[in-house]
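Appendix B. One record, verbatim.
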Amino acid sequence: MRMHKKIIAGLLASIVMSSFSHLAFTADEQFMPIPIYRTGPYAAGGIAVFGGFMDYMEMLNDRDGGVNGVKLVWEECETAYKADRAIECYERLKKQGSTGAAAFNFLGTPQIYAVMDRAAVDKIPLVSIGYGRADTLDGSVFEYVFPLTTTYWNQSTAKIKFIGQQEGGMDKLKGKKIANVYHDSGYGKETIPVLEAQAKKYGFILENFPVAHPGLEQKATWLQVRRMAPDWVILRGWGVMNPTALKEAKQIGFPREKMVGVWWSGSEEDVIPAGDAAKGFIAAGFHPAGTDYPVIQDVIKHVYDKGKGMVDKNRVGSIYYNRGIIHGILNVEAIRVAQGKFGNKPLTGEQIRWGLENLNLTEARVKELGAEGFLSPMKTSCANHEGGGKVRFMQWDGTKWVNVGDWIEPDYELTNQLVKESAAKYAAEKGIKPRDCKAEDGSSL
């Protein structure tokens, strides 16, 4: 209980904490925009993820003097998780710094949809780590979008694989009933085509249940779920929708051990407010919680021990905070890779796009970054802007997240075909001529 109180108190402290932004930029600094959301129903995620992201950059500035001598600077802009505000922040920040914005990380699928066309024209990359449009994996069409680590579609196939494992094999899914309770938004609807394809492939019965934003009213939805009597429930929630769903599941007597959430349903902020209704709940993940990693220890030493942290120290090591560290690592590695080609100086978004497309985080490099066991190795290319990533599931035991089983590889055979079809349709609609990735770097999906 004491730990729970500390986390909740830390969240409240973060909301009122004054924003530390670099507002006076010099010609020898690399500018990174921070389109944060400290307000609204999804503030818990916005504060912690962006807080971790900024703390990682602050740590590099203090420990290493930046990236190869180039200091990292940033400025916040409040989006409140709204697409129109995201556009405003994009326009406000895109030309900041001596070379403009390095890349935009909006931490929201609606925001990616809203600015995608603008970013391509402006030649500024959009980085959507574990979220966004899944078909943007196809770099031949989406040159400036990078859904790094694992897309929603690939994560969805891993969830069904996990459920199949729990049932004793994928063949055991035939005839099973799965309810998909999803946030009624572009984000929430993103995996429906993949789930439908998987239902056809494995023979399970799928029903989709939308939950209106922000998700505080769900009683009618869960009464419908009870009538369906599913064997499993997939929870594709966000923010306040998640603890509300867990409470409603308990109310109708549905076992949380048979509920599998997207990674935006799998943070401490999602389960602690639900109390004992959350115990047993399972969620997907692409990184662990905890502080027992050299990279996190360096952040504590160079940032928090010097009183410069962006969130309450009690949140360091939480799921959302650690996701911010992942954002920091991947964005900065793209800058570092791009510097190898273009020089150790502030780079343009177009140059950093090259770095994002040529990431090669080997096991050795991940270890050098202090992220062994924290970040999976990955490699991007012209054709593949995701980089390939596995999914691991974790279960809430009432006090902490505990890993369940090994890393699961997505069903790329299924999703790559869907990605190519969707990307080709988008290219035709927008009049985009796909790049010849085999000619550029020999890559293909």
